[in-house]
Design a protein that fits this description.
Blueprint lengths: L9 H10 L1 E4 L3 E7 L6 E5 L7 H18 L7 E7 L8 H14 L11
Parallel strand pairs: 3-4
Antiparallel strand pairs: 1-2, 2-4
Helix pairs in contact: 2-3
Length: about 120
């Protein structure tokens, strides 16, 4: 994932937490808010409750990669924060990607897939 998509400053994270809306699922939570600019920015939060540093970094890498693959489809002009919960450790890459897609659909930031007639 390119660095231009990252929320970098603590100030940006605090703003999203304070003003944003949330959507949750079993493995993770999405907190999002409309941005002043037409850019998409994302942050990832993995607590020490998740496990040791190896497990936390593995979860972050998988979350970043699954988000990177969805970037072209996501609505622009939002700041997003994905917060990992404990069950995410047992999820494989496909499960993490499915959970992220589900949260983005819940927040209406991802296009709904049309079923063929």
């Amino acid at each position: 994932m390119k660095r231009c998509y990252s929320l970098k400053r603590n100030k940006e994270f605090r703003y999203v937490y304070r003003v944003g809306k949330s959507a949750g699922s079993r493995p993770m939570v999405l907190v999002y808010t409309k941005s002043r600019l037409a850019e998409l920015k994302v942050g990832f939060s993995v607590s020490k409750k998740i496990g040791n540093s190896v497990a936390r970094n593995r979860v972050k890498r998988r979350m970043k990669e699954s988000f990177r693959l969805m970037i072209p489809s996501i609505k622009r002009g939002y700041h997003l924060i994905f917060i990992a919960r404990e069950p995410v450790v047992q999820e494989d890459f496909a499960g993490i990607q499915k959970a992220m897609r589900h949260l983005l659909l819940k927040a209406e930031l991802y296009p709904v897939e049309q079923k063929p007639l």
